[in-house]
Amino acid sequence: MMPAPGRLPPGRRVYAVGDVHGCSDKLLRLHARIAEHAAGQPVETAVLVHLGDYVDRGPDTAGVLRQLTGARLPMHTVNLLGNHEQMMLEAVTGGAPELFAQWLRNGGRAALESWDIPPTVPPRMLADLIPRDDLAFVRTLARHYCDGSYVFVHAGLRPGRPLAAQTTQDLIWIREPFLSWEGEHEAGVVVHGHTPKSEPVVKSNRIGIDTGAVLGGPLTCLVLEQDRLGFLYDT
Asked: Domains in the chain, ordered, with CATH?
């Protein structure tokens, strides 16, 4: 463990997992490592936070959602909304051909294949073809989670705005000016995914943990406890 830019109360630990993007095999291995770590180093309260982007691009969106809805990890779990889940919901609930085409261009075709749904299906039929439990899960995803001096979101925060004034668009899509911002955020140290890097990024005001699992990189889990941090990987 190394010094962290934020702090959790004594007796609490947070595991935060970056962008999965249909890599069900990596998620399965990482969940096993998290469970092993929690069993080997017990703590009074542990929380597992998935940072969004479970669907699209990778080979097994259906398998990832089955794992997330059926996981039996020994801790409370928080699942956040990513921009890819938002695109999926817009394609399904809007029924507009342009929203469906946007989703397909951004990895939705792979998600449909995992459900054995042809990409030529009329958008109005999606809500009846995608498994009901998967849609229900995606529709209930949280926008953010706060713990200690940390705030967990998919993409980042708009600098200079309190958390209550952040839009869903910023929370799930923002890159700049968030990534280059060096000042503090009123909400706390931001833990986020969305922007893939070859390794985790740790700065005084943010921690980025999208390490490009779907691009051949590892699936990363950030471990936070008191004023320390560490990492677990699926490999």
From this structure: 2-79+140-233 (3.60.21.10)
